[in-house]
Design goal:
Number of helices: 1
Order of helices and strands: HEEEEEEEEEEEEEE
Structural class: mainly beta
Shape: elongated
Helix content: under 10%
Low-confidence stretches: none
Strand order of the largest sheet: 1-2-3-6-7-10-11-14
Number of strands: 14
């Protein structure tokens, strides 16, 4: 958590799908999966959480497929009218399902491409300004690259990592039939890492 978005260039691990799918090409092993669960803002709200599942499978020395599922629950929300009258209780939630392909391109360079389906149900069909809301859906893609090299620095073994991930390149999303659709937030992660043994 303290590293923020620096995960784009750190060494490959089971959660590389979130940061940089291209890193999977250099991960050790033929397959694996990981799970995480975060009770979000637990001191303020008792029922908001984020759950994450990711995994990979190696076809051969150069090719890996990987995938992930992230689910976020925003807890119980009370919908009221402008007078404060309770209209309904609802648990807003969002999820994203990813599938990706990663490949070693050269001895030190790999590339990856990921495809994502996004589902966001924030209003539960409630009426907003007289119109029924609907869950927002979108499709997106990531394009990523990762470079790693072992060199000698100050007579020590040094591992250099460089990463880039252009994520959420995708379609627009809307929460009603008449509302103007908006692009989902695209992101570019770019970073470097160095490890001295």
């Amino acid at each position: 958590g303290a590293l923020g978005d620096a995960g784009v260039a750190t060494s490959p691990d089971i959660f590389s799908m979130h940061w940089n799918p291209a890193k999977y090409a250099f991960i050790d092993g033929n397959g694996g999966f990981g799970m995480s669960y975060s009770p979000w803002l637990r001191n303020l709200v008792p029922d908001i959480n984020i759950a994450y599942l990711s995994g990979y499978y190696r076809f051969d020395e150069k090719q890996i497929i990987n995938g992930s599922l992230i689910y976020s629950s925003l807890g119980d929300v009370q919908f009221t009218d402008i007078y404060g009258t309770l209209m309904m209780n609802f648990k807003p939630n969002e999820l994203a399902v990813d599938a990706a392909y990663s490949r070693i391109l050269t001895k030190n360079l790999s590339g990856g491409v990921a495809f994502r389906f996004i589902y966001s149900n924030l209003a539960g069909g409630s009426f907003i300004n007289g119109e029924s809301s609907k869950p927002g859906t979108s499709f997106a893609a990531d394009i990523s690259g990762y470079y790693q090299k072992k060199i000698s620095l100050l007579k020590k073994d040094f591992h250099l990592g460089l990463g880039i991930n252009l994520s959420n390149i995708g379609s627009k999303m809307s929460y009603s039939d008449s509302q103007t659709s908006d692009f989902i937030p695209m992101n570019m992660r770019l970073g470097a890492s160095g490890t001295i043994n």
